[in-house]
Amino acid sequence: MGMDKAWRQFLAVAELRSVSLAAQRLFVSQPTLTHNLKKLESQLGVTLFNRSPRGMTLTSYGETLLEQARIMQRVYDNALGKLQQLKVEQESGLRIGVGMAWWHLFFRDLFQRYREQHPTAPAHIEIGNHLRSMDQLLAGELDLFIGHRIAGLNPNSGAVFTPLFKVRDACFVRTGHPLLGRAVSFDDLLDYPHLAVTPDETRYSRAVVTNPQFKEAEHHQYHLADRVVWSTSSMSAALDILRDSDAVMIYPESMTETLADSGVVPLALTEPQEAMEVGVYRLEDRISDDGLDALVEEVKLALVETNKVELTT
Question: How far apart are CA 188 and CA 180, in angstroms?
């Protein structure tokens, strides 16, 4: 007989003071339970119960064993609970997509907190363009992702957007750039290369966006059809290119402080930039997922702590 079963049967009889009642609780026959108790006494070499017509009472040995058995049972139950929690964490983990700007702005610190709270849970952080992240979300490769609201998104995609904050874009250049120190219009950008970081990929645009006119409007605003366009999927490469050329990079204004450390600063644009919504995308069938809800609340808290964005009310 396993020790776990022996302790449980002993505890039941000791607490109920009756073999018959304990047998009913444990769903075993009374003769089987009686046999197992005698076997336990034989293994321990002591008498645990005083048996009488009025029931079972514990001997001094039984009282001592009861005290220790209760402690062992609590330890055992606690161990099972921790093992179950560990299993859940390792099976679920975290699969999240996040834009490069948001990683630097707040998600890096958020992920550090997540690691401290869930040290055994696996995690995969996908850094990239929001259309690629949407494709991965729809394929079940991500649980959620943080990115701009996708203009022209297929309404039948099954993805739900929860707005969290608003940002405006700025045009960033190297220190010493010819356009610095004066007001700059979009027409002034025509003579300078446009540098795109993690640009939209055609294969994802066709699969995710059904109305491309919004993307076309952005190209028209910055005169991209009339300018030299360079692109890269690496922020490290983008910063090298900016510092070594007169290229102009469009990037969230909230990253000004971070980019300044790399020798990159914003231009003073004359045209006001429209605020864009950034938030969380997840699948409709996971809109009430407790785990994802908790993660979204952590994201909101991290945004408040940054104090660098306009929160959505």
Answer: 11
Instruction: Give the separation between CA 256 and CA 261, rounded to whole angstroms.
Output: 9
Backbone φ and ψ of 119, nearest 5°:
-65, -20
**How far is residue 205's CA from residue 132's CA, in Å, rounded to a whole number?**
8
Query: What is the CATH code of the structural domain delimited by 107-311?
Result: 3.40.190.290
Alpha-carbon distance of 285 to 160, in angstroms, equals 9
259 alpha-carbon distance from chain centroid: 26
Q: How many CB atoms lie within 10 A of CB 181?
A: 10
Per-residue pLDDT of the chain (313 residues; tens, 9 = 90+): 455 788 889 999 998 999 999 889 999 999 999 999 999 999 999 999 998 888 789 999 999 999 988 888 888 888 887 777 666 655 567 899 999 999 999 999 999 998 888 887 888 999 988 889 999 999 889 999 999 998 888 888 899 999 999 999 999 999 999 999 999 998 999 999 999 998 877 766 666 777 665 555 555 555 566 678 899 989 999 999 999 999 999 999 999 999 999 999 999 999 878 899 999 999 998 888 888 898 899 999 999 988 888 898 7
Which of the following CATH numbers is that of domain 3-90: 2.60.40.1470, 3.90.950.20, 1.10.10.10, 3.40.190.10? 1.10.10.10
- β-sheet bridge partners, residue 171: 250
Range list for CATH 3.40.190.290 in the chain: 107-311
Q: Residue 163 pairs with which residues in a beta bridge?
A: 279
Residues facing residue 143 across a β-bridge: none
Kindly report, as residue ranges, where domains of CATH 1.10.10.10 are found in the chain: 3-90
pTM for the model: 0.67
